[in-house]
Amino acid sequence: MTALAPHIEAFLREHLSQHRGASQHTCDSYAYSFQRLFEFAARRFKTTPSALKLEQLDAELIGAFLKDLEEKRRNSPDTRNTRLAAIRSFFRFLEHRVPDALEQIRRVLAIPFKRPVSRIHGLAQAPAVCQGRDRARVQ
């Protein structure tokens, strides 16, 4: 089993800020995403977040985490997609560090983003609110 802690630490402390030039806001957002994921996984495996192993973060677990975000935590598709973007970025980072996990990584990277409900599309479907020239502008 592969320890997760050294990889996530290298990703958050070195890769994002130094190699990718990510802002502090992005680094904080990614860290929060992983905090939520690790708390979810720790509950599921009845362990502590620090004891999690890379092999435990498979596509099935991440899919369940994303579903939990939407259904139990009532997060929007945009928030779900933000969390998934962080996870996918980390797994792309892992491709070069843990070649033994390439199949697991491939499956995680195949998890699709959800299409958010378009606000403009919603406006176009509301003729009582947007009429005439105004409705034409949003279409």
Low-confidence stretches at least 5 residues in length (pLDDT < 50)? 135-139
What class, by secondary structure content? mainly alpha
Largest sheet: none
N-end to C-end Cα span = 53 Å
What is the count of DSSP helices, taking H or I runs of 4+ residues? 7
Mean pLDDT: 87
The rounded Rg comes to 19 Å
Strand content: under 5%
Percent of residues in helices comes to 55-70%
Summarize the structure.
It is built from 7 helices and no strands. It has 139 residues and is mainly alpha-helical. Helix 1 runs antiparallel to helix 2, helix 2 packs across helix 4 and helix 4 packs antiparallel against helix 5.
Can you describe this structure?
The protein is mainly α and 139 residues long. The chain has 7 helices and no strands. The longest helix has 22 residues, at 24-45.
